[in-house]
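Appendix B. One record, verbatim.
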Amino acid sequence: MQLPRGAAGGCGCALFPLLSILFVQGVPPTLSLEISADAHVRGYVGEKIKLKCTFKSSSDVTDKLTIDWTYRPPSSSRTESIFHYQSFQYPTTAGTFRDRISWVGNVYKGDASISISNPTLKDNGTFSCAVKNPPDVYHNIPLTELTVTERGFGTMLSSVALLSILVFIPSAVVVVLLLVRMGRKATGVKKRSRSGYKKSSIEVSDEIQTMKRPTDEVCLMEEGLPNNRKYLVPLARSATGGDGSDRRF
């Protein structure tokens, strides 16, 4: 049975949009997932190192989200899994990174970072961070080159210098200020003691012996003076330690 030409043409026009919709629905949409990580990280032997990794997904985080960290030694194509996450963290339990990988990220904040404890020179190499958050599964895989070295004398010296600046120098300034303040107090005490000087028992005894000198000679001198002039002869020592030999007329 042949359909009328007009009917066949109308049916073809009606089926084309439907086939187009079915074709589009048959192809899963490709959603982007952006991942970022530091290209180079430098660390020191024995000091914890953080490998930072962040991601942005167009879908909400669910329990299907997975994170995988891998490691590749220098000059080698062999890679090993060192960390896996899916609703919970699963650090590696074998290899050189055993019991040294810790989870420091937060998937709800787009953070997939990990840390390495007690790093050694053997940890140098390339690390990769992969994140999948279905339906966002297509993304770039950033690489991080880790370089672990020994702390040199210059680095240690700079650390000591910084510690001195932050701790010892302020302490020294405080000590100097205290010494200056104590010196000023001591100077004030000396001045007050000089203005209100009290003689010792020995000095008082010496003055008493001096005052016991006979005064007849002084009296005779006064009687023989013309015009009733008198000489004032101080017999006691002055408070400033003089010997009493100075006389005023």
